[in-house]
Structure formats: structure tokens, C-alpha cells
Amino acid sequence: MADRLDVIIFGASGFTGKYTVYEAVSVLGDLKWGIAGRNRKKLEDVLQDMGIKANKSLKNIPIIIADIDNQSSLLEMARRCRVLVNCCGPYRFYGESVVRACIEAGTHHVDVSGEPQYMETMQLKYHDKAKKRNIYVVSACGFDSIPADMGVIFIEKNFDGVVNSVETYLQSYTKGGPTDGKGALHYGTWESAVYGLAHANELRGIRQKLYPEKMPRFQPVLKHRPLIFRSEIVDGVCLPFPGSDRSVVMRSQRFLYEQDKKRPIQMHAYVAFGSYLTACLVAMAAVTFGLLAKFSFGRRLLLKYPSLFSFGFASHEGPSEADMERTYFTMTMKALGWPKLETSLTTEPSGSPTKSLMVRVSGPNPGYGSTCVALLSTAKTILRDSSKMPSTGGVYPPGAAFAKTGLISELEKHEHGMKFEILANK
């Protein structure tokens, strides 16, 4: 790999891709990096536009032409770098061919997928092949899975005892007045959500093959909260969070249980709103979304009119830069467990959990700032901290891949990174 670029950003002319190029200027620093896609003119425009935005000339950044429909071009691209940063989604349609090319080329792969079917299928099909090649394939490397998965890792590192469970509460807010109405999500993210929910029934079969043996049921079991409830933890009205956070965290905990013989942490995820009215409207929209996504006609409507069915939250144009810079997130996490004592997987703690730890992960511009910084930081961590990752390659979620690395410290270095902090320790 000596003559390879350190990193290539594939899909660099897409909405997420171009902001990943912008963040690469600061995050990748003195690493050698390039960009890739199928249209040279669009890639040149991205380098020019993001160079102006970053106040740095990017005219010498290498451009590689690769087409998702041309496997040989993907293989040639993968052979030119040590880590491929894949921004080309929806991954259920476009991800596997890139993963396959990376494994064949001996190139690490990271992406920002939030699609459980894709991520778990890649683990099922390619984990052993990646291990043989000593290659890491890590998905869910953006917002909101990085705050959740690495947040649980942060909790365990700072919990002087045994953690039984974690609840996460996601909130987003804007500063500086109302938004301009272009939506908070780009169409590509909306499309991934539509198809992910449409094919959610695939997960059971995938998981039965991926994990033929069930884990023991550790006590006490973390119970689900009501469908709508006011939380004393964040002073907001909460709903179950519909994203992939829990599935990602559970995969990491399963790996740590099997690899390190560590008691797995139970986790439930919620999203918080300012009032019951807002929460009820979101709940009704989610039900409508779920029903429509189950049928081909409904999916066509959702994809044709994203702004209508998301109440303006998603659009083909995506959010403006001004809106992105005014948007922030916090993920408040409450852990319950027992004080430090002698325990093992065969010697369970006794009594109800008596110790708690509250932490917060926060950051700006979650969709296209913190996400891009996190994605690039995972690539950088593979390059510089691989000795602290699982001893062989494989297909992993972030918590499993980076639990023992300096990823959290790297995330905290950057303007659009993430801050991990302890709020209360009792």
C-alpha cells in the first residue's frame, strides 16, 4: 500500500460527499487524499467550490473516475487508496459492489449507512472474507449512530462499576431564528429511510443467520417506555427513536460479549420534542410514513413528494448552508448499573441497579457537518490506530471497531466534531 493514497472519498459530487470534501481539508490534514465519482466536471466543480469555502486551493487533489455500475472501475479505484470513504447511497442499492471491490483490493471501507438490512447483510456475507484480507469494513460512521454507539463506549469507560442499561434521548434545535424552509434532510437520506422501512421484514431472517445462537437474557431487563411520555431526563416529550441506533449498539455489544466476555449493555433509544402537540404530530406522520412505505404505490408517493410527507423536513435540494450552521444536536444518555464489584458473566450482580451516570454527546450541523467529520475521523483512526482495533479485519459497527482506539478524542478536535461530557455521576 506504500504508493497508494491514504483516503479516497467516493461519491464526492453528491450532497454528503461534497461536504465530506470540505471537512477533509481540516480533518485529514497532511494525509494524501483524493476524490472519486463518475463525472469529472462535477468533481472538479466540487473541488473548486469547497476550496473556496475552505479558503484553500484543492486543484492538486487527485480525481479518480469510477462508476457504481462498472465493477472494474470500482476495483481500480479501491486499489488506489488505503481507506475508501463511501458516500454513495442508498447503500442497499449501491453499497455491496463497493464493499466487494474494497475487499478484493485489500482496502479498508467506511460509510455512513443507517440501513440495518445493508449493514447486517454485509457482515453476514463479507465478515470472514474481510478477516482473511485483514481489512476493516465499518458502516454507521456518521450521525446519529456514532454518538449512540461511541457514547455507550464512553459511558463504560467512565462508569466505575458494571453497566446494566443505557437510555438515549436525541434532541435537535436551531439558533438564530427560523429556517428558510428547504428542509433538514437531503432527498438521498429520505430515500434510504423509505426503502429501509419498506424492507424491514428482511431483518429477522438476516439476524437468524448472522446470530444463530441467542445471547443469555441478563437481568434486570430494560423495559420499554410508553409510546409517548414526558421524560424527567431531558424535560421533553419523547417517542421511540426509529433509526438504526439500537441495532448498531446491540451489534457492538454482541461483539464485545463474544470477544471480551463482557456483560452486554442493554439500550433503548428515544427522540425528544418540546411539547405533546409536536410529538403527536410526529407520531402521526411516522405512522403514515410506515403504512405508505409498505406498498409500492405508497413508496412512489413518498419519493415523489418528500417535502409534503415529511412536513418540509426533507427535500431534493437539501438544507441550505445557513440552516445547517444553525442546527445543533444533543444526545443525553442515562446509564444504570452497580458500583464496582467482582463480577463475571457467570456471577451476576445482585439487587437492583443503584449507580447512575449521565453523559451528553453534542455537536453542530449533525446531518452534514458532524456526520462528515465522524466519517473521516473513522478513516483516519483506521490508518493511525489499527493496532487497537480487533486483531483481524472484518465487518463491524463503530463501537466494536473503535472501542479501544482514540476515535472519541479525534472527534472532539474539530469545529464540526462532537463533544463527549459527563453530566452527573451518582
Automatic annotation (TrEMBL):
Domain of life according to the entry: Eukaryota
Domain Saccharopine dehydrogenase NADP binding: 7-138
Membrane-spanning segments: 269-293
InterPro entries named in the record: NAD(P)-bd_dom_sf (IPR036291), Saccharopine_DH-like_oxidrdct (IPR051276), Sacchrp_dh_NADP-bd (IPR005097)
Pfam families: Sacchrp_dh_NADP
One GO term describing the cellular component: mitochondrion
Keywords: Membrane, Transmembrane, Transmembrane helix
Presence of keyword Transmembrane: yes
GO process annotations (BP): glycolipid biosynthetic process
Family the UniProt entry places it in: Belongs to the saccharopine dehydrogenase family.
PANTHER family: SACCHAROPINE DEHYDROGENASE-LIKE OXIDOREDUCTASE
Full protein name: Saccharopine dehydrogenase NADP binding domain-containing protein
Source organism: Stomoxys calcitrans
Encoding gene, per UniProt annotation: 106089603
